[in-house]
Design a protein that fits this description.
The chain is an alpha+beta fold and about 170 residues long. It contains three helices and three strands. A three-stranded antiparallel sheet has the order 1-2-3. α1 runs antiparallel to α2 (about 90-145) and α2 runs antiparallel to α3 (about 150-165).
């Protein structure tokens, strides 16, 4: 699905990011609020990125809703054909209709999987951001108090290990 960003704004006073995206299903808005613990490491980019992800999820939900409506109409039409007295259910036309119903069902399943994947990606990015913020806070604290050279070395080793695991 091709999305175009119509509007993107981060308000540093409130910590609220808003993004509106547009695609063939309409215009969708996503909001993201800055967590109070992360105020010292606030990022306009991350807030707008999270808001865009939420707007994209809303767009996929609308796509699913449209596909379900089309499927409902085709099923209704198929039931009308079945109840008609002289309808040949083995005709090419009816077989194409059943095939289209099957294809729509598969498309709906695919969109549902995509929505779940987007939600999982969003959750992963939020958790990764939280871990990064914890590391930054600890590094900032260690810079204030230079007696923590042993802790500093532990953080560096942990960071190297994490980078090594992510590259594998």
């Amino acid at each position: 699905m091709k999305n175009y960003i119509v509007y993107s704004k981060y308000n540093p006073e409130t910590g609220l990011s808003k993004v509106w995206i547009k695609n063939k299903y309409g215009v969708f808005m996503g909001k993201s609020r800055l967590h109070p613990d992360d105020k010292e490491f606030a990022s306009e980019y991350i807030g707008c990125h999270f808001a865009e992800m939420k707007a994209t999820i809303n767009a996929y939900k609308k796509k699913k809703q449209d596909l379900q409506l089309r499927l409902k109409e085709l099923n209704y039409f198929y039931e009308i054909l079945k109840s008609t007295k002289y309808t040949n259910l083995d005709s090419i036309e009816v077989r194409k209709l059943r095939k289209r119903i099957y294809i729509l069902e598969k498309e709906i399943e695919q969109v549902e999987k995509e929505i779940e994947q987007l939600k999982a990606d969003f959750q992963y990015e939020v958790e990764a951001r939280d871990e990064g913020m914890k590391l930054l806070k600890k590094i900032k604290e260690s810079r204030k108090n230079p007696n923590y050279t042993e802790e500093k070395q532990k953080f560096i080793n942990a960071l190297k290990e994490k980078m090594k695991n992510e590259n594998d």
